[in-house]
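Query structure, 57 tokens:
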């Protein structure tokens, strides 16, 4: 996995988790959903990079 893409994935995952927690704390469903979507984007990016790495080997 390239370092840049790995960093982007981890950043998106962390931001998404933080936004989800914030939304739940404030009782804001919209913010919670946005956070979950951002985390999912990070998860997908990480999975894509792992698949690319698997085919490189």
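Result returned for the query:
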């Amino acid at each position: 996995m390239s370092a840049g893409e790995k960093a982007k994935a981890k950043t998106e995952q962390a931001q998404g988790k933080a936004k989800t927690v914030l939304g739940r704390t404030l009782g804001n469903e919209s913010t919670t959903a946005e956070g979950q979507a951002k985390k999912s984007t990070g998860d997908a990016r990480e999975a894509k990079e792992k698949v690319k790495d698997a085919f490189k080997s």
